[in-house]
Amino acid sequence: MRAIAGGETDARDILAAVTPGGGKSLLPVLAAHTLIGAGLVERVCWVVPRDSLRLQAEEAFADPTWRQTLGHALSVRAADNTPDPSRGLAGYVTTYQGIAAASDLHLREFTRHRTLLVVDEVHHLPALGEVDPVAAQQAEQLGEDQASAWSAALLPLLECAAVRLLLSGTLERADGRGILWLPYRKGPRARTREVELDALGWAVIGYSRAEALRERAVLPVTFGALDGEASWRDETGIELGPHRLAGSHPDETTRPALFTALRTGFAEALLREAFVAIRNLRAQRRQERGLEPGAAARGLGKLLVVAPDQAAARHYLEVVRGWIPAAQAGAVAQLATSDAPRAHEVLAAFRLRPEPSILVTVAMAYEGLDAPEVAVVAALTHIRSRPWLEQMVARATRVDPYAGPYEAQRALVFHPDDPLFAQFRRRMEIEQGTLARRPKAGRPQSSLPLWLLDQLGPKPGVVPLSSNALALRYDTLRPGPELALRRPEQEEAQAELLDPPSVLERRLRIRLGEMVSRQAVEDEAGRAGLQGGIAGPGLAHRYNAVLKRTCGNKSRAQMTLAELEAAAAWLERNRLVEHVGLLEDDPRYAWTLRQRGEWTPPVGKPTREARQIRKA
Q: Quick one: which of 27, 114, 158 has its CA closest to 516?
């Protein structure tokens, strides 16, 4: 940040690939303090994946220790989609959903102030065909899901931001698609791409799990793997099982057995192991501090229970409360799911107060939850995506400042001993995690994000019957290899080389996006000359469609370098509002807007589709 502020580097894109629990939330504070102080930016906009993380972002700027250490007095606010989101402060925090719901409002802020854009957990955002040629080839078979809509809403902000700070604990997506805005090149294996860590204009910060363990920034993880067997009835009514969970390789019984185990007796057995572990830890720490039995204090350790769905979460809560004296059960164990009352208050109390010491959740506490007191996790989820499991495990790897010396702390994760979880652990140990794999042809793609799939009801066709636990074994995770991050600033400068065409193309795509967004903001503010059907929300999307029609129906991702230069020159001399008539009879554009719920046919003039229907 000092190099950017001092003009020592041309980098304006910073990628922070930091292991979960490694302290990513401090980086926006460092960036804002340095860049605002140097006058390079005026505001910071921090975008988080879910509403429960907005308060944590505010707290990162308000932390008294870092205020004193850095000597900063900046504050940001958790904003909703109302005008002037910063309200006189240094910036604001919003969510992916907030950006998608009012993209024009945020775009106006970015054109009004030079903005540092912080995108938290950027791996949630898939690459778009508009700016990524490979993503354009995949778009037809994958379709558009909610995550793609978030990417489309955030793209104009990325293009208009003065500096971009992208944060992630993983550089891969579960569906194999690329990540929005990141530079890619051909990967070492067929049909893969890898993040181009030394791309021009980029600065890459890598902080691996091995580095964090060496510096005692995170705790080592001990896994308690519980084996079991399960029986269920399939969609034809045939009873199957009992089948073991453990095995060297997944087979057709692995997922239904896991599905059954998480909803029957096995789940209660695993939950009991986790409950006993946290009870013993808290009793030990009370004794070491001379506290009375049952006394509440910070740093005694907490238990996070991750359930497969909301019905199971409610059942788990009842089971846990049955093991606690009735007078204490309500305060000690609580529930945080999307349909639970006061869920955000419960999450805040779990993070900041001695009680509750047990939290049962589905997905709300998966990602980014900053609760260092979590010492034990009961992983009762059927999701086996590496990014999500890493996030879940990381809830217990934060160092607790109230729990005594580092050597006395550990992270304990109890999980079903199935081969899918074993594969995840092996991948954590050996893989770099920078690859994007092209999805296999014909592979069904879910339109829902994994955290939402985790909340859905029972799997159709499988009726859980019974399960039981068999054996428990413990293993400590070994740190994997270093993430091979090569920083361009550490290499000798080669000023005599010209920028390669791919870099020039990328810069021109960004420039075109910024030019389109600025025209949209200016015209939306003035409303002057806006023709029927063009005013209203999504004006930047409409203007992008106009530019595409003007350029021979080619998107920016498909244009050659010469075509990109010509488009930029054309935009410098023309206003897009004067060419909106190109969209009036275009059924492709009408279809897109109908999918978004934004299409209004021009007044007094039927669409081409309407005329065809009338003629028929």
A: 158
